[in-house]
Structure formats: C-alpha cells, structure tokens
Amino acid sequence: MLHAVSKLHPLARRVLAVFLVLLATASCGLGDLSIDEADPDSIPADPTYEGEVRPLMRYYCVACHAPSSQLGTAHDFDYSTYEGTKAGYGGILDTVFEQQSMPPGAARRMSPREEAIVKRWAEQGFKEKPTP
Ligand code: HEC
Questions:
Q1: For residue 94, which atom of ligand 1 is closest to its CA?
Q2: What is the pTM of this model?
Q3: Residues contacting 14, CB < 8 A, separation 6+
Q4: How many angstroms separate the CA atoms of 20 and 43, rounded?
Q5: Ligand 1 mutation pick, 70, 102, 110, 115, max ligand atoms within 8 A of CB
Q6: pLDDT at 24
Q7: Does residue 61 line the site of ligand 1, with CB under 6 A?
C-alpha cells in the first residue's frame, strides 16, 4: 500500500492528502439541523458583508470560487468579492441551503446559525458595510 502511494505522481499524492484532510475534518453532526432551528436571538440583527458574510464566504467558499483559486471561478461563481457574492446569492440558496451540496464532499458545512446570518443579510437587502 505504502509502496503504491509512493509510486503515484506527486500531484496525485497531494490530491490524496487533501482528500484525507477533508475526510478527517468532516463536521460532527450539526448538519442535521435546519436553518429555522438556529436560535434567532443569536443572529446579528443587521448583518453586513464586511462584518459577517465575508469571513464566512472566505472560510467556506473562496478556496474554490475565486479568481485566485486553483479552480478559478468554478462555474463563474466568484465568492471573493461583495459584488460576486451578491450576484451569486442564488447559487448559495441552491447549493448551500437547499441541496446542501456546497462545499462539496466531506468538507465542513455552514452551521444553521451561519446559514441564518447569510439568509438575513440577503433578506435585508445585501448591506455592504456597517453604518458608521
Ligand atoms: C473544494 C472546492 C469547493 C468549495 C470549498 C466550494 N465549491 Fe462550489 N463548486 C466546486 C466545484 C468543483 C463545482 C463544479 C461542480 C460540478 O461541475 O458538478 C462547484 C459548483 C458550484 C456552484 C454551481 C452550481 C452547481 O451545483 O454546480 C455553486 C452555486 C457553488 N459551487 C457554490 C458554492 C458555495 C456557496 C460554496 C461555499 C459555501 C462553495 N461552492 C464551496 C468546488 C467547491
């Protein structure tokens, strides 16, 4: 087995390593809760892109959906900017809230609370920055 791994192309070995890390960091059970079960009081009243949404996109999506990522902007979704996230909100609705297919594989998913923050941000009109 070890011998077989060492014979793999270096890139294949890296892909295997990344896969194993993703597997090891698979989330632990939160995924069964629906967004509606997040405690409404724990969600910021007035979430903004700069304040709450950007860090979430950066953590969960930007590794694969940004011009700088190895995949480029996979399927033309760029979640590394305000405009891109706003324009790609339909994709978040679809793949994160409904199909629960993104991020793919065993990668950690957004918690119900995090999903509710993004949802409230959209419902309140995609505010970019906190009011000073
Ligand atoms: C590990 C890399 C990776 C991460 C992280 C990731 N994606 Fe993707 N995403 C992909 C790939 C690859 C595709 C193309 C899938 C296909 O062709 O089937 C894709 C496709 C999509 C699509 C196109 C629709 C579809 O189902 O094909 C949307 C929308 C999307 N991702 C949203 C997101 C969002 C939102 C996040 C963060 C919550 C995210 N992705 C995180 C790799 C990733």
A1: 29
A2: 0.78
A3: none
A4: 33
A5: 102
A6: 45
A7: yes
- 66 touches ligand 1 (CB under 6 Å): no
In the reported structure, the alpha carbon of residue 72 is separated from the centroid of ligand 1 by a whole-number distance in angstroms of 11
List the domain boundaries for the chain. Answer: 30-123
Ligand 1 closest atom vs CA 109:
38
The residue among 111, 15, 16 whose CA lies nearest residue 71 is: 15
Averaged pLDDT, groups of 10, the chain, 132 residues long? 58 55 45 67 93 97 87 78 97 95 94 96 97 85
The separation between CA 4 and the C-alpha centre of its own chain, rounded to angstroms, equals 34
